[in-house]
Amino acid sequence: MKPILDWYEQRGWKPFAFQRQVWRAYRAGRSGLVHAPTGFGKTLSVWLGPVAEWLREARKRPRATSLSDVSGDPVGPRRSRASSTAVARDEAVPFRVLWITPLRALATDTVQSLLAPVRDLQIPWTVELRTGDVTATVRRRQRDRLPTALVTTPESLSLLLSYPEMQTHFRTLRCVIVDEWHELLGTKRGTQTELGLARLRKWNPELRVWGLSATLGNLREACDVLMGAGQRSALLIAGPRQKKIQLSTLIPEDISRFPWSGHLGRQLVKPLAEAIDAARTTLLFTNTRSQVELWYQALIAERPDWIDKIALHHGSIGRETRREVEARLDAGDWKCVVCTSSLDLGVDFAPVEQVVQLGSPKGIARLMQRAGRSGHQPGAISRIVCVPTHSLELAEFAAAREGLRRRTIEARTPLEKPLDVLVQHLVTVAAGGGFEERALLAEIRSAWAFRDLGDHEWQWVLDFVTRGGSALRAYPQYARLTLEDGRYRVSSPQIERAHRMNIGTITSEGVMNVRMGNGHLLGTIEESFISRLTNGDCFTFAGRVLELVRVRDMTAYVRPARKQRGIVPRWNGGRFPLSTHLSELMRALLDAARVGRYHGREARALRPLIELQAKWSRVPCSDEILIEHTTTQEGDHWFVFPFEGRLVHEGLAALFAHRLARLRPMTIHVVVNDYGIELLCSSPLELREADWRTLFTERRLTEDLLECVNETQMARRQFRDIARIAGLVVSGFPGERRAARHLQASSELFFDVFTDFDPGNLLMDQSRREVLDRQLEFRRLATALERLERARLVLVETERLSPLAFPLYAEQLRAQHVTSEKWGDRVRRMAEQLERTALQAKRVRRKGRSATVAAD
DNA sequence: GACCTGCTGCGGTGTG
After folding, report:
1. In terms of Cα–Cα distance, which of A335, A330, A336, A334 is closest to A349?
2. Is A190 exposed, middle or buried (0-12, 13-18, 19+ CB in 10 A)?
3. Which residue is nearest to nucleotide B15 (CA to C1')?
4. Which residue approaches B6 most closely, CA to C1'?
5. What is the DSSP code (8-state) at residue A576?
6. Local structure of A589: helix, strand or coil
7. Which nucleotide is nearest to A389 (CA to C1')?
């Protein structure tokens, strides 16, 4: 370890205790998972293990090292005779370390970090990148010879495994490091990584695997998954704890004038601009891309002098522009960057002074991740300023503050048996030299996700890749593998080529490039948005107002618009639910408020609103379930408030509607948000306690939900991704990209064909399972329903919409395209009522206080 | 005067 310690000393550093722990463990041949926030030397902790090992071995070797020594091959007479040129050639140490990261940009940065000690210690290691960023020439060369350390992505690893010659190259591998494992865990990319690792482990039983992760609710599980089934004794090593996080909230001056619903929060532009002004650099996180665009505009409008000091960053902005923004952020050029999760992790930039979270953070892990972007200096505190976009978000911030205090960090659940990923992997392995059935099955079962893979499932998957299952056997293009002499191989070079071009598990909506007339790429926008525009229409994108000139070859050509304003694109992104922890904490907060306890500034600021809720209706609490009934001209509204996050509410709402329709046929409109559910019926709908009890029952839960899933488009949509990953639909050669709707059309065709002719198709089962697990959070839903079933029901008839009901009502109106006039009227009336009541409340409190003073 | 939503990420053939 001496040279390593010296190296640290030269730089004026001292190794952390956890780093020494990792080195010792590495030396002992162990594997493990290191968890710590970013910026605490996790990278070096695992990198210097193999480096030190090499130095140790080098000491034992004669000076003139030859390749055969290092690789452990039999040492021949070559050693003593090694000519100087031979040494130079042989000095390149063979492939030893594989480094996997989830991001290309991170991979590029990592190569640089790994090279630093290699250069300083003058060891003859080569470190190279292997992602989609490297040229075809380099890729080709790497097929012949790998560097000492290769930094890559899960997808590129799969590609490597699809080449037969890789098996020999990988024989010398000693260590795999999976960076940002928490990002991969719980995704199909993670499963793909697990399968790749299972393969590498089989080739090198002594392989050491190290994971790097941020703090997570289920670290032990994360570690087990990475190590694979049946592997024990892996170490869980904790790095330094997350530095202190200081959360503050921008509280609207007059809560009674702050909207009850909405998500933009533009009322707070002024105070937020002041907060930005007060810090040297600010990172402003929003939850959606369109919010980024809107807030960028809003800040410039507020402070025109900031035009060159504010930048924006989100996933649809062109890569080149994003890298530029990142580089200037690192240089400290910006006053403020408005961004989405695109800056959550990945590339390293100098820490900013202040982080702002606009709107709900949805989870504690996410809040910590974002807060960690500020105050990197040792001993510094991460500061995050939360900005609400509607009143109830104050409660979420209060809950988040409590969550931070208790460090209740969300877990990421690993996937179980995603067969589409397995199908893809089988073709990959078949291309990479073929496989023998029993041997591969054992290997697959050593991957955590497939540890319980049944014989039946295995046979089905094999049948699917060799014949296309029972429905597609007439089509030779789906007989992708052929069995010859007990070995499965890819049936034709064409299939092999098409397969390589479709490796990966990330699927996306159809997007179009947005280019200026001169060809400069601004970014991408969804086809569905562009298709609603006609030439000459203006829209805001990448911080500019653009005019659509024409659409050609899946590209929208634009030019700067003369107008000042344009519509803001909508991207159909993911929808986060409030996390389990955060919703639990929110319910606890309401429990406290109900008995008059308000902890923290946020909760106190919210007091008038909660009192209003109590006055007009009732404040929901954990052991009872509040149901409000209100009649308006639109019909009968029923509101339920489980506070379980929007996905669970979506599932519950579908379930209620389904069960109601079974009681009596009717049309029900359903709307949900993170706090509750609204059922709206245009004809009178009377629901008594007994009716609600039948809606809340756990009996036949799975069956009923599956019926909902089958009746709706949910499974069909989910199947589209599965068909892509399993290689049923392929997207063609680069450059001749097909429109996404073609892919969709063909995946729909498969869905119909399988429904009719292959009812036992396990990929169809999988799509239903994914809808339940991922789209409706089934397990959480079941727990929620259990709570509802046990809870006391409180039915309240309200004369007007309560503060909790109003956001759902607003959402409902929006969904039904009610004119804005009507909307405005309604909102205004609500506001007036609110203001009157708030005034009353103030008067009452003042009286109360003077009474107490008198009593004292 | 409040409404208008919805994250991130990867990969790509062919042999003169």
Report:
1. A330
2. buried
3. A140
4. A575
5. P
6. helix
7. B2
A508 nearest nucleotide via C1' and CA:
B9
Query: What is the value of pTM for the model shown?
Result: 0.90
pLDDT tens digit sequence for A730-780: 876 665 555 566 666 788 889 999 999 998 999 999 999 999 998 899 999
**pLDDT recorded at residue A80:** 38
Place of tokens 């289920």: A218
Distance B9 C1' – A508 CA (angstroms): 10
Q: Given this model, what pLDDT does residue A822 score?
A: 54
CA–CA dist A707, A695 (Å, integer): 15
Provide, in whole angstroms, the distance separating residue A265's CA from nucleotide B2's C1': 10
Nucleotides of B under 7 A from a protein CB: 1-15
* DSSP-assigned states of every residue in A721-737: HHHHHTTSS---STTSP
Q: Are strands A382-387 and A149-152 parallel, antiparallel or unpaired?
A: unpaired
> For position A75, what pLDDT does the model report?
37
- Residue A655: name the closest of A634, A632, A672, A643 by CA: A672
Q: How far apart are CA A176 and CA A115, in angstroms?
A: 17
Q: Which regions in chain A score pLDDT beneath 50?
A: 65-89, 818-821, 844-856
Q: How far is the CA of A616 from the C1' of B3 (A)?
A: 23
**Strand nucleotide closest to residue A288 (CA to C1'):** B6
Q: According to the model, what pLDDT value does residue A827 have? A: 59
pLDDT tens profile A195-229: 999 999 999 999 999 999 998 999 999 999 999 99
Query: A211 CA to B12 C1', in Å?
Result: 28
Assess contact for A166 and A415: CB atoms under 8 A.
Answer: no
- How far is residue A51 CA from its own chain's centroid? 33
The whole-angstrom separation of Cα A281 and Cα A354 is 6
Q: What is the pLDDT of residue A850?
A: 36
* Integer Cα distance of A331 and A265 in angstroms: 30
Query: Given its phi and psi angles, is residue A346 left (phi above 0), alpha (psi -120 to 50 degrees) or beta?
Result: left
Residues A299, A334: Cα–Cα separation, whole Å: 14
- Among A385, A390, A384, A354, CA closest to A267: A390
DSSP state of A568: P
For residues A226 and A23, the answer to whether their CB atoms sit within 8 Å is no
Tokens representing A147?
């560097």
Identify which of A585, A583, A530 has the alpha carbon closest to the alpha carbon of residue A558: A530
Amino acid A88: pLDDT? 44
> What SS3 class is residue A382?
strand
User: How long is the CA A603 to C1' B12 vector, in angstroms?
Assistant: 53
Q: What contacts 24+ positions apart, CB below 8 Å, involve A6-15? A: A7/A117, A7/A120, A7/A121, A10/A120, A15/A41
CA atom of A472 to C1′ atom of B15, Å: 34
